[in-house]
Write a structure and sequence with these properties.
With 186 residues, this protein is mainly alpha-helical. 66% of the residues lie in helices and 0% in strands.
Length: 186
């Protein structure tokens, strides 16, 4: 019997390891980059802000307590905007023109990325990263059945497996996806 996988956020909070951080960075870098671009930042600033956010996360996540009624993504946006505000204040104090502190949004940045767009991007990214966690036949059975919407009998015939194996592959991959993204799709 396979051990029950722990969600990525639980691994980062309770027993962070290199693999968990690598997976988190792979999942969330595209989202942070998208948010930074929507804020009008240039490529160099996008890289700096993304790195600033990950530094804060390394410091803060061990103390993070997930609230099922809250939103991890909203907290992540707040971390990004706080980094933005901090740099804006620093630039203003030093007489630089990095950012106009008054231009930084003071309200919830919920408009930065639509909910559906976020969920789709995160699931797509997680699936791409998870592909190596499964045998090729298991992965292909799930992919063809779920994503390509092919009938189970057709997938089974094409892959030389039973119809039941197609359903089991779907169940295993989707269960792993739900576990991996627990707390991240809020």
């Amino acid at each position: 019997m396979e051990p029950t996988p722990v969600s990525l956020i639980d691994r980062l909070v309770h027993s962070p390891d290199r693999a968990a951080w690598d997976r988190f960075v792979e999942l969330y870098t595209p989202l942070l980059v998208a948010w930074c671009r929507r804020l009008g930042l240039c490529d160099a600033d996008v890289a700096d802000y993304t790195q600033d956010v990950f530094v804060v996360l390394v410091e803060q996540l061990p103390r993070f307590r997930y609230d099922p009624n809250g939103s991890f993504r909203a907290w992540l946006k707040t971390v990004l905007l706080n980094a933005w505000r901090k740099r804006a204040r620093k630039g203003a104090r030093e007489g630089g023109h990095l950012l106009d502190a008054d231009a930084v949004p003071q309200t919830d940045p919920g408009d930065l990325l639509a909910e559906a767009e976020h969920r789709e991007a995160l699931v797509r990214r997680a699936l791409a990263l998870m592909q190596t966690d499964f045998e090729p036949a298991t992965w292909q059975a799930c992919w063809q059945f779920v994503v390509e919407d092919r009938p189970a009998t057709e997938v089974a015939t094409a892959l030389g497996i039973s119809v039941n194996a197609v359903y089991l592959a779907k169940s295993r991959v989707l269960r792993h996806l739900r576990t991996e993204l627990a707390g991240l799709l809020d």
